[in-house]
Amino acid sequence: MLAKVLSGAVVGLEGELIEVEVDIASGLPAFNIVGLPDAAVQEARERVRAAVRNSGCPFPARRITVNLAPADIRKEGPSYDLPMAVGITLASEQAVADVSQALFLGELSLDGRLRSTHGVLPMVSLARERGLRQVYVPAADAAEAALVDGVEIYGLESFSALVAHFRGEAPIAPYVRGAQMPAAPAAGGTDFADVRGQEHVKRALEVAAAGGHNLLMVGPAGAGKTLLARALPSVLPSMSTEEALAVTRVFSVAGLLPRDTPLITQRPFRAPHHTISQAGLVGGGRQPRPGEISLAHRGVLFLDELPEFGQQTLEVLRQPLEDHQVTISRAQGSVTFPANFMLVAAMNPCRGGD
Q1: Using CA atoms, how far apart are residues 2 and 63, in angstroms rounded to an integer?
Q2: Nearest 5°: phi and psi at 146?
């Protein structure tokens, strides 16, 4: 028997539709995954086998082949656990359901519970663009997925609950987004109104905030440079809905989105240590991920002790500061991340006092 289930992958900050094809045939028991999977996807065989069995469904003792198409896109992460389990359940005729208009995302634990996964927001946005009507995600990710309008979101606590839903034994109601999303705390943790003194520096920060200018503060240790920088996001204009969604998308892909605040409404404040690498600052890796400058998108990037940063590390900031985006090229292709941020740097005076 053959079953086809839709899932998604994240390439850069965009979603890519992945078709999970599950074929169950006669032969010696085997479970093979093809379609350019990484180690985490290969390990899904044991997670899916245990989750299906511990959810009350017998695991087929036959030859199972799972194909992740298109085969030229690298598949990584555990989010394919749920679509694989759904495909095996449907192909083995343990449940009957029309999943042609549904997208499935989620990591399975050995007892069948669903764990949170990264990059839900861009993949749900992809589902809406492709005209899909339903998206099944872990319950912990339902609030994030519901940020996208026009798609029914189903939050799942366990795989057994999904099987009962397919069988009509215990239907799951679509997730209903609350009227007001919980607000995230201030990014820098300091209110500008609480800063006393340093009126000339505060005036410069206000001018920089009003015009979106970059800023360098020079002063002795203990003068309050870091405190002032951390207070800067509190006087920046509130983010629009489009800006908030763009920032949330970056944090979702990076796996840094707080579970209790699915929508980031405060402008981000990032303060990397001077030992950070170029890849950590601008993004990178075998499968490129956003760096600190993208995590500071629409917010503030603070570089304390500026002379301690390596020259090459600072040089890579030139293009993002001019173009407000960074392009990372690899042999498999290139991805572009947003990087529209205010650069605020601080340093001590030189030993000569100049």
Answers
A1: 12
A2: -75, -5
Beta pairing class for 107-108 and 114-115: antiparallel
Confirm if 346 and 226 have CB atoms less than 8 A apart: yes
> What is the C-alpha separation between 249 and 86, in angstroms, rounded?
27
Q: Identify the residue whose tokens are 């100049």.
A: 354
Distance of CA 73 to the CA centre of its chain: 18
Q: Whole-prediction pTM value? A: 0.89
Pairing of strands 215-218, 342-347: parallel
CATH 3.40.50.300 fits 192-347, yes or no: yes
pLDDT digits (tens, 9 = 90+) for 304-324: 999 999 998 899 999 999 999
Q: Does residue 20 surpass a pLDDT of 60?
A: yes
Residue (of 160, 24, 140, 31) closest to 79 by Cα position? 140
21-47 tens-digit pLDDT = 999 999 999 999 999 999 989 999 999
Which CATH number does the domain 2-166 belong to among 3.30.450.40, 3.20.20.100, 3.30.230.10, 2.60.120.1690?
Answer: 3.30.230.10
Question: pLDDT by residue (tens digit) across 109-149?
Answer: 999 999 999 999 999 999 999 999 999 999 999 999 999 99
Return residue ranges of the chain for CATH 3.40.50.300.
192-347
Indicate the residue type of 198.
Q
User: Token digits for 7?
Assistant: 């899932």
Identify the bridge partners of residue 215 per DSSP, sorted by sequence position: 344
**Contact present, 108 and 97 (Cβ < 8 Å):** no
> Could you tell me the two tokens for 61?
């003792």
Structure tokens at 298: 């629409």
- Please tell me the distance from the alpha carbon of residue 204 to that of residue 77, in angstroms, as a whole number: 45
